[in-house]
Each structure stands twice: as structure tokens, then as C-alpha cells.
Write a sequence for this structure.
């Protein structure tokens, strides 16, 4: 059974070279239709699929009549704005034939670094997946500058996979996986079917040099993306994308390199919450809430009796039991002023108290770890 067959939440990264004809700037429509068939098949199995797609600049520059050389940043932004409309339309047409809804999401590096924006992006993406949509993600090139860019969609895809705790990141490429050297120039290059745990310097050395042009990726960025994915407990895969039905090919035993993490996404996320974040505040809970937390449930406002500290939505807070001991740590869904107002109240009262319908939980169980 392949890593694809075992995964429930999947991120697929698609590069410009696979999607767009470099001469005409047109989408490879037949190829995209076969990919749509594959995605529809995964959705019919109950799997959640997110797409991270390059191609907007490659499409838009031709429509604007821009040169084929390296573009200046304002030209890249203009090309991205023009091309993203056509790119999204192509995906919606293809997936719409299978009654799938495409939801466009544009992200910048700051969306994965800023705590509040990270939480907002994560909540939006997980809600879209819950509702059965297929998020289509690209870097927001129209507003990102050189200083605040992901720089390539391989790393963006890995950040997204970490953000939504994906089981698998698939990077479709023009090569079927990682080799010990570039097989196009070195006949002694050996295929590497599996990399376990950490990305070592030896693995990095296999990647060679980075590409240029419309495609900013190459094996260098794919290895960097695999490192990000492994750190989040997500399995990563590099496989051939130039064939029709590339995802079906994986399930049928097609060649690929699989990067296997030491932990699963849930474990990795829990470890990150527990160990790498300093709590900005404390939530004191009653005995009923303590019992609910120990049984694996979320922390509801009704069980919170006292709040200490100054914190924002998405910050790490400590959960304190009736005896004054820290028993859990998690990412709080409200800033401290709102949390203080709804503490001790039932979930159904949140909208009346705050004036809007917020999260039902003070800390969702997925964002909470028992100490």
C-alpha cells in the first residue's frame, strides 16, 4: 500500500513546467483534466485534497506581452494578477465537472509566521476541507516583496502541509524522484526510493543546483520542502508529474521517493505546542473541565473560572487545575479580554456576549496537549 493510499489529508504541489506551455502560456488542459480525475477519485474515497499550484506568472506574462527573460518584481506582480484569474478558472472548470468546488487562497510568508494570521489561515483551510471544497493555494505575488516571499511553491506547499497537519505532501516533478546525482548528466546516478527521518548533508548534496526562469524550484527546493514537512510529521513524496493521471500512477506502484518522518502530524504538532511555545497566560479550570480534558475533549468557556496574563488569539496559554497545577497547554481561540468576558458561560451565550459567533471552544482539542 502506497503512502497515498494511507493518507487522509493530502497536499499536492504542481509546478509551472507541468501546468503551462512555456511557448504559448496556455494551460496543458488535457493533463489538468487527468489530474482532475485523480483528485475526484481521492475525494470519492473520503480523502481531503489541497492544491498548491504554480503557473500564474507563466500564464500572465504572455497575456501582458512581457519578455521571456527575468522579470522585475512589479512585472512579476502584474503577471501574477493576470494569470491567477485564468489559472483558477481552469481548475474550477476541470474539477467542476466532478462536482468539486475550488476555493482560492492566496498566502504570503507572513501568513505562516505571524501567529494570528497563521491561526486564521489554518482555520479557513480546515473549514474549507470540512465543507468538501478543494483549496487552491498560491503565493500572493501581487503584494509579496522579495523580502517577504516564500520564494518557491515547494516550500509554500510544505508550510501549508504543516499548517493543516496533512498526512502527505506530494510534489509532482519532471523527474520520478531523488537520485544520488543528476541522472541526465551522470549515468552512475542511483535512484533513492526512501529517506527516513532527518535530511542529512549527504541527501542535500544529491539535489544539485537550483533552476531559474519561470520555475523557481528544482530538486534543491524540494529537499528543503521535505525537511519542513518532516519537521511537522508529514510524509513527503517526489514523483513524476509529466504523465497523465500522475496520482493514479502512484497508487499503481509508480516510482517515487518517499520521505518518512519520525512522528505523525498530530504527535509533531502536540510536541511543538508543549515544548516550543512559552505560555502568555493562564486559564484556571474547574473539576468538570479537568475531567473533560483528561478524556480528550476540548476546553469550553463554561469550564474556565479565572484568567491571568495578556494574550492574543492563537497564543499559547497554560491550563491550571483546581489545585494550581499546570495540566495542559494549548492555543487559545480568543484574546484575553474576550476570554474573560465569556469565561464561565455556555457556548450558546458567546454570540450574545461578544456580538459575534466565535469558536465554540476556548481551546480546541487539536490545539491542546496534556502535560
Amino acid at each position: 500500500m502506497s503512502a497515498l493510499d494511507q493518507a487522509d489529508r493530502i497536499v499536492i504541489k504542481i509546478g509551472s513546467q507541468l501546468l503551462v506551455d512555456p511557448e504559448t502560456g496556455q494551460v496543458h488542459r488535457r493533463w489538468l483534466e487527468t489530474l482532475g480525475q485523480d483528485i475526484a477519485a481521492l475525494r470519492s474515497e473520503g480523502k481531503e485534497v489541497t492544491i498548491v499550484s504554480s503557473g500564474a506568472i507563466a500564464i500572465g506574462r504572455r497575456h501582458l506581452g512581457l519578455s521571456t527573460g527575468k522579470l522585475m518584481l512589479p512585472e512579476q506582480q502584474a503577471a501574477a494578477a493576470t494569470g491567477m484569474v485564468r489559472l483558477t478558472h481552469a481548475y474550477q472548470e476541470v474539477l467542476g465537472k466532478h462536482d468539486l468546488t475550488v476555493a482560492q487562497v492566496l498566502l504570503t510568508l507572513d501568513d505562516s509566521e505571524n501567529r494570528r494570521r497563521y491561526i486564521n489561515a489554518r482555520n479557513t483551510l480546515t473549514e474549507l476541507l470540512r465543507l468538501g471544497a478543494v483549496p487552491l493555494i498560491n503565493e500572493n505575488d501581487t503584494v509579496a516583496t522579495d523580502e517577504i516571499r516564500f520564494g518557491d511553491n515547494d516550500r509554500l506547499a510544505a508550510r501549508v502541509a504543516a499548517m493543516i497537519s496533512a498526512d502527505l505532501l506530494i510534489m509532482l516533478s519532471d523527474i520520478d524522484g531523488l537520485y544520488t546525482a543528476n541522472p541526465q548528466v551522470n549515468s552512475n546516478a542511483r535512484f533513492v526510493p526512501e529517506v527516513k527521518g532527518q535530511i542529512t548533508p549527504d541527501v542535500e548534496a544529491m539535489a544539485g543546483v537550483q533552476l531559474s526562469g519561470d520555475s523557481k524550484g528544482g530538486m534543491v527546493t524540494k529537499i528543503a520542502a521535505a525537511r519542513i514537512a518532516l519537521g511537522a510529521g508529514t510524509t513527503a513524496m517526489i514523483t513524476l508529474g509529466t504523465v497523465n493521471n500522475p496520482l493514479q500512477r502512484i497508487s499503481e506502484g509508480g516510482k517515487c521517493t518517499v520521505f518518512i518522518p519520525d512522528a505523525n502530524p498530530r504527535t509533531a504538532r502536540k510536541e511543538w505546542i508543549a515544548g516550543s511555545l512559552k505560555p502568555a497566560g493562564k486559564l484556571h479550570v474547574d473539576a468538570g473541565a479537568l475531567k473533560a480534558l483528561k478524556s480528550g475533549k476540548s476546553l469550553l468557556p463554561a469550564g474556565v473560572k479565572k484568567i491571568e496574563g495578556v494574550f492574543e488569539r492563537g497564543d499559547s496559554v497554560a491550563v491550571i487545575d483546581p489545585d494550581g497545577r499546570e495540566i495542559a497547554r494549548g492555543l487559545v481561540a480568543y484574546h484575553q479580554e474576550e476570554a474573560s468576558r465569556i469565561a464561565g458561560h455556555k457556548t450558546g451565550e458567546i454570540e450574545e456576549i461578544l456580538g459575534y459567533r466565535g469558536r465554540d471552544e476556548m481551546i480546541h482539542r487539536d490545539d491542546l496537549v496534556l502535560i
